[in-house]
Amino acid sequence: MIRIAELKLPLSAVPYHPDNHTEYAPQEALSQLAAQRLGLQPAAIAQLQVHKRSFDARKSELLAVYIVDVTLAEPALEAVLLQRFAADSHVNPTPDMAWHPVGQAPADMQDRPVVVGFGPCGIFAALVLAQMGFKPIVLERGKTVRQRTKDTWGLWRKRRLTPESNVQFGEGGAGTFSDGKLYSQIKDPRHLGRKVMQEFVTYGAPPEILFTAHPHIGTFKLVKVVEGIREEIVRLGGEIRFEQKVTDVLVEGDARQLVGLQVLDQASGERYTLPTRHAVMALGHSSRDTFAMFYERGVAMEAKPFSVGFRIEHPQSVIDRARWGKDAGHPLLGAADYKLVHHAKNGRAVYSFCMCPGGTVVAATSEPERVVTNGMSQYSRAERNANAGMVCAINPEDYPQDAESFAWAFGGKTYGVEAQAPGAFHPLSGIVLQRQLESKAYLLGGQNYSAPGQLVGDFVAGTPSTAFGHVEPSYKPGITLGDLHQALPAYAIEAMREALPAFGKKIRGYDMRDAILTGVETRTSSPVKIGRGADFQSDNTRGLYPAGEGASYAGGILSAGVDGIKVGEAVACAILGLPVPS
Ligand code: FAD
């Protein structure tokens, strides 16, 4: 097959179902364009499949831009054409995008691999291991997705947090109650992202995610997909144990070989040891107790940069108009998203994060008496407001490095920070800052899980807010209006005050007075990096495979899934004595 990029059609040429707005490929128009591009008659194209479709709104007429794969009626012509267009970056052979297992588990396999965490990274590590016959055991500290949904609503509706079952912890991982955006900017030469998307479609995601440029599936569809993949892992001989928290790692010898995991059964309160020499640690960014345990056990790790800020909410119509112009409201375009960045005079970068068109701001803490914001949406993206994190990049130099702050953050433990060399950054210091900011937000919100908020106009002017304007906030259980200047370090506030009017120049209305800021956004990525080598095993602990967002090898659902596949393959290769695919 030949892959041809940059085939453009006006929006009006894209057919869709009038009732449910399902999009179809304009086969005839695309075949004509493809044939023209290759210098052929349309009849020479035997088959055409859309690989990707994006929209380009930069010109006066909004265009649908396609990448297509074509099969020629005369197969022998393919090689001739590929040679003729060798210098044309838009005409290439269609790559093999299928996933090929690295091997099969031996029939007499003794040591079943363990996967800790059942977020996207753990899910895909377990799925590929199961597909290769390794019958993984999955340990997940949270509950099944249905039970977890009830617990999560408990915080949103009744101000009741369940620390082991919430937006961060439980089946499906952190992105289960999310916008379900499924794109990423990672390099993916082996097309593993395609495997993630194909599995999602197999288990109930809409097929269009395979060809739209910025696919998303929303919260409820994601819940069904996660359940479907769980059933498949079990069907293949895997085992998924919920409410099982890993509380310790057992290592032996100079090589620090992993030999087992200590597990707390949270339902019964019993503790047990699970022997294993291969454990994928797909913990997510919020498993702070497990990071602290790793530190105590000497697992190689370091503090890393992340970002802190607020959620910002605008009427979705403001964003749609700015992005789509006269085409705003067209059923195929849906609710518009955006991506913004501003480099402030004080050297800080402020950028939009995890933008959720037509969605809601959610309470995302996993710890009592702390407030954290994030965003989610349904597949329809039909809520009245657009929301996004508006965050400021920070780095280990900004994190507290004193014993008093550590003792406050870790219930009296200081993890040796008082003895560290001057100028060093303690691996757990980012967590200290996160906890300080989240506790402050809880206080400012009124100590009942309401979040502190402020109108954008007041924030820029430096005056506290006392009443909402035209924008109705979506955060549940509620917002306490006031002054957000106390909620973040001064450098972040300064950079954000500068960024808002600058963003208003890029998206008209972005700095509107009534837009709402809600705080605080602190779980943007992991505060630690847990290093690993080319074999995907910890820098200093054999058999421990740090993976996904918590270890800083992913940022988002798709990249976490891709990392899960790579780490699942690495475990299989280690057991089979094969080289890890590059
Ligand atoms: P996680 O998904 O965090 O999963 C880790 C799992 O490990 C958790 O289930 C946890 O309970 C479990 N665990 C942790 N410690 C232990 C232990 N000691 N023992 C046993 N189990 C343990 N990304 C996108 O790409 N698109 C979006 O639209 C999007 N929206 C988001 C919305 C929200 C509200 C949130 C919170 C995140 C969102 N994200 C989104 C980010 C995305 O969810 C994460 O990047 C992704 O889930 C990371 O996957 P992971 O598997 O590495 O970790």
Explained architecture:
InterPro entries: FAD-binding_protein, FAD-depend_C, FAD/NAD-bd_sf. It holds the Pfam family FAD-depend_C. Residues 305-524 form the FAD-dependent protein C-terminal domain. The chain is of the alpha+beta class and 582 residues long. It folds into 3 domains: 2-93, Alpha-Beta Plaits (2-Layer Sandwich); 114-301 and 530-576, 3-Layer(bba) Sandwich (FAD/NAD(P)-binding domain), CATH 3.50.50; 306-521, no CATH class. The chain contains 13 helices and 23 strands. The chain has helices at residues 27-38, 77-84, 120-131, 145-158, 192-202, 218-235, 288-296, 316-324, 403-409, 429-445, 456-461, 490-506, 557-576; strands at residues 2-10, 45-56, 63-72, 91-93, 114-116, 137-140, 239-242, 244-252, 257-265, 271-275, 279-281, 302-303, 306-315, 341-343, 349-356, 360-363, 373-376, 385-394, 451-455, 479-481, 516-521, 528-529, 544-546. The strands form 6 sheets. A 7-stranded mixed β-sheet has the order 14-15-18-13-21-19-20. Helix 11 (456-461) links the parallel strand 19 and strand 20. Helix 3 packs parallel to helix 6 (218-235), helix 3 (120-131) runs parallel beside helix 13 (557-576) and helix 5 packs across helix 13. The longest helix has 20 residues, at 557-576. Flavin-adenine dinucleotide is lined by residues 116-122, 139-142, 167, 169-170, 173-175, 177-181, 245-246, 282-284, 287, 290, 354, 362, 364, 374, 376, 548-550, 554-558, 560.
